[in-house]
Amino acid sequence: MDCVLLGVPVECGSGRRGCNMGPNGLRAAGLAEALTGLGHRVLDLGDLSPAPQRSVSHPNAKLKALGETVSWLDALVDAAYDIAGKGLPIFMGGDHVMAAASVAGVSRRSREDGRPLFVLWLDAHTDFHTLDSTESGNLHGTPAAYFTGQPGFEGVFPPLQAPVDPANVCMIGIRSVDPAERETIGATGVTVHDMRAIDENGIAVLLKAFLERVEAADGMLHVSFDVDFLDPSVAPGVGTTVPGGATFREAHLVMEMLHDSGRVTSLDLVELNPFLDERGKAATLMTDLTASLFGRRVMDRPTRSYG
User: Could you report the per-residue pLDDT of 61-78, keeping only the tens digit for each?
Assistant: First the structure.
């Protein structure tokens, strides 16, 4: 498989510094080497630069770094579309606002290919705020609302050429949702599996049902993997820790099931903050999980010490 790495060192969407080091944290953890070791061809395009800032404004005065964020999205939406035609893109972040553009770009490509795009959102948060509803003003809480075509982004975020059908979005690991997000998402048809659903049903049952839908539609699958999907005890390198996340074993099972499906066509690795990590613990785990998604089996895993 041809894997194309692109660093997106954006941190203005999170309101906390350090995410801009995420791409190099993944490189230092051996992401490219892990993929080549599995027989894949890897091209690292380096880090994206933002587009020139354009004049944008919005009535919500709480929005932070709006112009800077939009300049990153303007650059990434075109880059994502282009890379998706050359191989399997792996977008290394950077905070989760980048998914607004990575998903929008690959969705445009999937439309041209005549196949529906599905999105698996592995995250503690739904990130379903609109520009009007966010109280914190941190734009990493908005990407899923944007790429599913919710109103209020027009004239600010890049024009959305191929919105993702909300019914094609499955969120797993959710455990922090604001009231405004809950109201919006409830009317969309997005599938949301919080940690209670995982505890009651098992993560494999929930993921299997979604992957069967992707298979039946001959869909393309974008996986947006936020570090805080994982429990902070196993992945501390993130600025938005929420207790009670996915375990090491659950996360590896998810990745192995995704590999078995053969449906993954693009990937986000987001919110890694090496400044908050413990001797590369989260970066190394993210690399190992990505290797599982690309074919590493239980018997192939190296023994690691995090002590």
Answer: 999 999 999 999 999 999
Among 116, 117, 86, smallest CA distance to 103 is for 117
DSSP 146-164: HHTT-TT-TTTSPP-SSPP
Q: Three-class SS of residue 237?
A: coil
140 as an active site residue: the answer is yes
Q: Burial code of 118-152, b = ≥16 C-beta within 10 A, e = fewer?
A: bbbbbbbbbbbbbbebbeebbbbbbbbbbbbebeb
Residues in the chain: 307
Q: Are 203 and 100 in contact (CB under 8 A)?
A: no
pTM greater than 0.85: yes
Within 13 Å, how many C-alpha atoms sit on residue 170's CB side? 19
- Please identify which of the residues 11, 74, 95, 140 carries the catalytic annotation: 140
pLDDT digits (tens, 9 = 90+) for 22-55: 999 999 999 999 999 999 999 999 999 999 999 9
* Residue 127 falls in the annotated catalytic set: yes
Domains and CATH numbers, the chain: 2-299 (3.40.800.10)
Q: Is 132 a catalytic residue?
A: no
Catalytic residue of the set 11, 74, 95, 127: 127
